[in-house]
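Consider the following assembly input.
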Amino acid sequence: MSDPYLRVEGLVKRFGPFTALGGVDLEVYPGEVHCLLGDNGAGKSTLIKTLSGVHEPTKGKIYIEGKPVKFRSPRDASDAGIGTVYQDLAINQLLSVTRNFFMGRELKGSFGTLRMDEMNQIAHDEMLKIGIDFSDPTQAVGTMSGGQRQTLAIARAIYFGAKVLILDEPTSALGQKQQMGVLKTIKKVRARGDIAIIFITHNEIHSRLVGDRFTFLALGQTIGSGTNSEIDDEEMRRLMSGGAEMGDLKQELAAI
Amino acid sequence: MADQNEAGRLKQETALQKLLRRPEIGSFTVMLIIIVALSFASEGKSFSALGLKNNIAIIAQYGIIATGAAVLMIAGEFDLSIGSMIGFAGMAMSMMLKWGLPFGMGEATPFTAFIFTLAMTLIFGWLIGTVVVRSGLSSFIVTLAFLFFLRGVTEVSFRLINKSTQISGLPDYKEESWFANLLGGDVFGWFYDLWFMLGGNLNRKGAQWVDGFDARFLWWLIISAVAYFILSRTQFGNWIFATGDNKEAARANGVPVNRVKVTLFMFTAFCATMFAACQVFDTNTSDAAKGNLMELFAIAIAVVGGTLMTGGFGSIIGVVFGAITVGLVANAVFFIPAIDGAWFRVFLGAILLAAVFANERIRKRITGGI
């Protein structure tokens, strides 16, 4: 087993008196999909926002390739190779695929003009690498399906140097078929071997299908972790519902 | 593969189909109809040598400010202060020419009067933009405040220094100053010379009738060309679209959203100043009421040209068509004396409403009906 690309140790994040994260540990390896699971309010969003430089941790350390790092802005995190694909994807619908791909990081020629042909080619090739052949990258993003937009955001993060790809519930709000498309994309990125993926999801089946390693959060704490083979279905369900026993739940429900 | 089938659902279009789906097609069609209708109704007078010159003069005026308004709207903001900025700039320039530069710096030349005025209007543009991005308030209300503020400052300054809210009878600076000539003189004389050589462009005595277009024609072409180039070919252009479409997405990708907006508020101030400068050096007069309502014409033309009210989409070529359409109709009364001039506003209201609906359809088509 290689060293983890990203390691988080005892991460604490407090907002005033409220403890959003109360000591979370996480190890993410290149070429692996690390599923981050937990109920609403478990602290998943706070954790990824801390990892992507939106929040500064109150306590605890983040290591990249063994070296401690401090992110003061999303730019810092992105420079350190953390690419976050948020649920809203940070995409502009009216702009073309290429213009979205290079938004804020356009390739410029002499006189500051855009190297449009080259950018079209790169956008097309990068998206093809992870699964979609979008024949016309000058088409507006508004014409793409939700899964294709997801692919665009992922391809963009990878092209601009992401070594850790954080995917914030990429399969929610998508149709069945498109969800499978996104899972395929995740598998393709995993197959490259050099990128670590943090996959946040509510969906047990999806995490089973692509996950190598799991971390379960509840009320800001890590309540369980392990590899795909270590955790059986029963245990998984227990941890996903925040540690409650299914049996207890059944009793509670029956009592109503 | 599932996703490849998705891509395959996009229908391949022929060149003609693509042309018909361009966002400018609506304003282009309306423009053609107006040109043809006007030619017949005015018995060719609107496109006689002088008619063409006069039409282009007003089209260029509209076009200059509509370009500024359109680019700003693409970035998702409005500027209602354009009209008052025109009044302010005209006042500042003509008063410097008449009473000398501020702070006792001596006589003004057309060039120094222009530069001092431009510096002031750019500072106002910067101030408006900064207030909008810092406060997060709607640009509608902030620029409405500056609409009143600048118009008031213009009148007050006129009365304090000049004792009257208008200046007329300035010397004709075009005669000596190349700079004044550049803004208020004639351009494209070769066009009318050629027309004369081909046997047209004759006055009643049989001599050459018109010598050239107003210089603002050239400035309109330059401003439109630069705006078109920046929007479609440069990084800053991509930032303008990105800012107007989804500010947060643009910011998350490292686009300096606030800087883009402030720059564009300065650009509308620049356009207003060019409008005023061409007027001052053409007529050698100025008036505190100049530019009144022009902000609304500018926005209307931008919308008629296909610019979305919600930002993120628009076309400079469409704005050119829009300016031609609105300018021709505004001038139509001079060529067809039988009609009531107020029909112009009826027409403008009608095509504005039609354009808003058409633009909404375009937006839905691009975003897949959302």
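The longest strand of chain A covers residues 18-28. Ask yourself how this observation constrains the way the partners meet.
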